[in-house]
From TrEMBL:
Belongs to the CorA metal ion transporter (MIT) (TC 1.A.35) family. Keywords: Membrane, Transmembrane, Transmembrane helix. It comes from the Bacteria. Gene3D superfamilies: CorA soluble domain-like, Magnesium transport protein CorA, transmembrane region. This is Magnesium and cobalt transport protein CorA. It is a multi-pass membrane protein. It holds the Pfam family CorA. It is found in: Membrane. InterPro entries: CorA-like (IPR047199), CorA_cytoplasmic_dom (IPR045861), CorA_TM1_TM2 (IPR045863), MgTranspt_CorA/ZnTranspt_ZntB (IPR002523). One of its GO terms (molecular function) is metal ion transmembrane transporter activity. The keyword Membrane applies. The chain crosses the membrane at residues 258-278, 290-310. GO terms for cellular component: membrane.
Length: 315
């Protein structure tokens, strides 16, 4: 969809029907017709508009004349609860921020809650002609989203560990594996985004004022904090998965040892009874206490095997 916003006289952000000077063009899952309309109206190469729509696009910043394209990643929730068995809880969504002379364009493959605060008025102190200010606020909101996501993943890990401690089931391990995958994607994206922010701060990609530098530094600090927290959680989670995997393996081995011991113990009386129940002459068949003797032998031999397995800690 194509959304066009412009600041009103009283400072509110309002939707307008057509692209005009100092407007913010927001493309969400755009159609080919919408992409061609923006490309032809603003004379932007179509391939530039298509780059942020690639799900595999990595964060970067480039300049082409007066055009500056910034691609970042924002975390988006895709699974929770029992769905964690099949897929990671979060994935990274590419977001493109395009600076033109008199326009700002944001491009995203699907709707993200990050922009709701901007268009609903919850984010203030900006106007649609303030391309740098809007960009920095998006970067700041993204860094906050990463910190929130890391906290949520931490709670997911704690909850899954509690379930795993009670049940030792495979689904809980799959959940931890998928959470670990989200942390891996997040670490990669955060590292690349920190590099992009450093290029913005050190290079001449967009004009920065004194207040803008402070906002950018705060966003970079938050991204670094999120990266460090994700790294710690991933390292801890890897150790936890290895530990629980070993515990499950030990439990499985214990069950197999128990079943083996029980099988041997049950096989002993079965074997003795089978030998003396064959349809052939036996030397104790005429003995009046033969059955009692046979039962005593079974009890003694079975007890001996049980004692041996007990001493070997199979029981």
């Amino acid at each position: 969809m194509l959304h066009i916003y412009k600041s009103s006289v009283d400072g509110r952000i309002e939707r307008v029907p057509d692209i005009m000077r100092n407007t913010w063009i927001h493309l969400v899952t755009p159609t080919d017709a919408e992409l061609h309309k923006v490309s032809e109206t603003l004379h932007v190469p179509l391939d530039v508009l298509l780059e942020p729509l690639d799900a595999a696009e990595q964060p970067y910043i480039i300049r082409r004349g007066e055009l500056v394209l910034i691609v970042i990643h924002v975390p988006i929730l895709q699974a929770e609860g029992e769905e964690l068995v099949d897929m990671p809880p979060y994935r990274m969504l590419p977001l493109g921020i395009l600076h033109l002379r008199d326009h700002l364009i944001t491009i995203v493959r699907e709707d993200h809650p990050l922009f709701h605060a901007f268009f609903s008025g919850r984010v203030s102190s900006f106007a649609t002609h303030m391309k740098t200010r809007i960009t920095l606020k998006i970067l700041s909101a993204t860094s906050q989203a990463y910190l929130t996501t890391v906290s949520r993943l931490e709670r997911m890990i704690a909850h899954t560990e509690e379930e795993l401690a009670r049940t030792y089931r495979n689904p809980e391990l799959y959940k931890l594996m998928n959470i670990n995958e989200s942390l891996l994607y997040m670490r990669t994206s955060l590292k690349q985004m920190i590099f992009v922010l450093r290029k913005i701060m050190n290079g001449g990609y967009i004009k920065l004022y004194d207040d803008d530098v402070d906002v950018l530094e705060d966003a970079m600090i938050e991204l670094e904090q999120a990266h460090d927290a994700a790294s710690v959680h991933q390292s801890t989670l890897t150790s936890v998965m290895d530990a629980y995997g070993n515990v499950i393996q030990i439990n499985v081995n214990g069950i197999l040892k128990l079943l083996t011991a029980l099988t041997v113990i049950v096989a002993v009386p079965t074997l003795i009874a089978s030998m003396f129940s064959m349809n052939v002459p036996l030397y104790i068949e005429d003995y009046p206490h033969g059955f009692k003797v046979l039962m005593a032998v079974i009890v003694v031999v079975t007890g001996l095997f049980t004692y041996v397995f007990y001493r070997l800690r199979y029981l």
